[in-house]
Amino acid sequence: MQTVNDAGGLRAVVGRWRRDGQRVAFVPTMGNLHQGHLELVRRAARLAERVVVSIFVNPTQFGPGEDFDAYPRTLEDDRELLQRESTDLLFTPGVETLYPGGTQQTTRIEVPGMSRGLCDAFRPGHFEGVATVVARLFNLVQPDVAVFGEKDYQQLAVIRRMVRDLCWPIDIEGVATVREADGLAMSSRNRYLDEAQRRRAPRLYQTLCEVAESLRSAPAAHEALEARAMESLEQAGFVPEYVSIRHADTLLPLAPGERPAVVLAAARLGSARLIDNVRV
After folding, report:
1. Do 92 and 208 belong to one domain?
2. Of 28, 49, 111, 212, which alpha carbon lies 20 to 30 A from 153's?
3. Distances (CA, A) of 142 to 17, 55, 119, 210
4. Is 37 among the catalytic positions?
């Protein structure tokens, strides 16, 4: 596995692969890798001859008071994990590489519609930061396919819409959420949970599964199901931000009986912000 941290080095390596007619898959991450990330790398290896993984903690997707400074950075451990997988190139850019003019006055990308509501109501500007950094990474790597996890469901929808709207010839592959044995979605932020919170955390996924099952038998009772789920999470010790039933493709509010559907939620448990979703 090669490691580069500059745009020129990245383009030189990828350029050689392209001249050899090899297909390139890309997995962008913020590091602190776990089995969920590694499953993305494994899927990428099945989709292309070459795999690029990036590690970059992106400042423009963190709002004031969020955990940018505290976000776990474990580059050496991450490098060891990736060396065991089918990773050909690790790209570790600095801020100056992706934001050569600084982060304040930089060109930004906004994806209307998909970016609004849900997590955006609690993290304004987050998806603008995500779209901006992913667009820059795509322009540098120029992959044939890029792989993302479905745990960050709204993020995946935003990226798919951005790629479609900007007419990029990039296939976007979603990978099902990887879970712990008790159902908790794997996340770098799970390390913020103490022992008691960690025992309680799977209740988020359980609640979403209950909503999904109820939705199958009572397809018109959206608001009641959402309200009941919020109350259930509060009783379990969470501070829920939202539980929402949406159209799985558009993320618009779901009409009664409409399919495909997805139930999405975000809730705080101590200092951790947990998100999850269940398809119906």
Report:
1. no
2. 49
3. 12, 16, 28, 41
4. yes
